[in-house]
Design goal:
Elements lengths: L1 H4 L2 H20 L12 H9 L2 H16 L7 H7 L10 H11 L4 H16 L5 H9 L1
């Protein structure tokens, strides 16, 4: 997580994915719950800030969390173990809800596609490849 949020392009990607998800959640009328270190209020605030500022706030939160222990995302852990990921139940669910409620989710759809590609090929994408993919 700290490596993702250390890179401005990847931070912007993470913020974009979150914003798509929040739009879908709002459209579907789903109530969010705060997590111990991440409140709904902060999540909502980050949603309305300029992307650069939102990314820096998210990066600061990740640095705070990773100062105690490394954060390895569950998707990465699954790939490293050679097991199927839960991407269809995370970002894929955002895509499905987006279809159901008429909210476009192109970034989340692309992430689902890319994670499935990594699952199949066991080849991770570089930051440059990700940046190119999401700026086309």
């Amino acid at each position: 997580m700290d490596q993702v949020y250390a890179n401005a392009c990847l931070r912007n990607l993470a913020v974009g994915l979150m914003r798509e998800g929040l739009r879908v959640i709002d459209r579907a009328n789903i109530r969010l719950e705060s997590l111990p270190q991440v409140s709904v209020a902060l999540t909502r605030l980050v949603n309305w800030m300029p992307s650069g500022i939102a990314g820096r706030i998210a990066a600061a939160k990740v640095r705070q969390l990773t100062s105690q222990w490394a954060l390895w995302g569950s998707t990465l852990q699954s790939i490293q173990r050679g097991r199927p990921t839960e991407i269809d139940y995370l970002n894929g669910e955002i895509v499905e809800l987006g279809k159901r409620y008429g909210e476009a989710t192109p970034m989340n759809a692309k992430i689902v596609e890319l994670v499935h590609r990594v699952e199949r090929t066991r080849q991770f994408l570089s930051v440059e490849e990700l940046t190119q993919t999401f700026t086309q």
